[in-house]
Amino acid sequence: MLSTTPTMKFFSTIPRTTQLLLGLASGMLASLIAARASEPASPDQVAQAAASPKEIQAHLSAGNARYVAGKSLSRDWAAERAKTAKAQYPVAVVLSCIDSRVSSEVIFDQGFGELFNARVAGNVIDDDLLGSMEFACKPAGAKLIAVVGHSHCGAVKGACNGVELGHLTGLLAKIQPAVAQTRAKEPSLLPNDEKFIASVAELNVRHTMAQIRERSPVLRDLIDSGQVGLIGGIYDLDSGRVTFLQN
Fold this sequence. Notes:
This protein is an alpha/beta fold. The protein has two domains: 30 residues, no CATH class; 203 residues, Beta-carbonic Anhydrase, Chain A (3-Layer(aba) Sandwich), CATH 3.40.1050.10. The protein contains twelve helices and five strands. A five-stranded mixed sheet has the order 2-1-3-4-5, sandwiched between helices. Strand 4 and strand 5 form a beta hairpin. The radius of gyration is 24 Å and the shape is globular. The termini are far apart.
């Protein structure tokens, strides 16, 4: 039989309404403490330097899992803005599509100062983007490059169907190697087939990754030495999940 402690005796003398209010307040305090314990923090120079490419990939995967589950971290954007105003130490650079539904901070549940963003239709590469990545990884210290394509990509569909329009024509030409590979691999599929489009999207990510290594000696040296990781992934617009590609 449980003994009655002085605290229990004291609590039993309080009116029932007051007990409920105290219980509610206690629960709110516990929730506040738990929320503060899990508040996100933008990386500092020490954290950036200590992180490995594999740890950063795991960090992004965990953030994406929170996003998919509808449990993204609560952020004080004003405080994050103030903290990062003087300096930034992002851990990764993400090359993704310009598509309005593919925001890296959102799908990976990251805040200010955590990611360098490079966005262009079809997540293709050019000299300006390579220069931006070289800056992000060499002087600025990012440890991971993630090339992220996505499902139902308009640029990929345009390339599959030979769309031509002003400067867009040249951009879509960069996706044509992936179109040709898919056509050779899946000759029975039509360009509008979802399986064809999905194959082109993945091969285009892999082609961009290869171009990063081939065209930038700076990045290639960082990648080959293990200082920087290079990964590819596909974001599914329907589920919100990012699937990282196997080598």
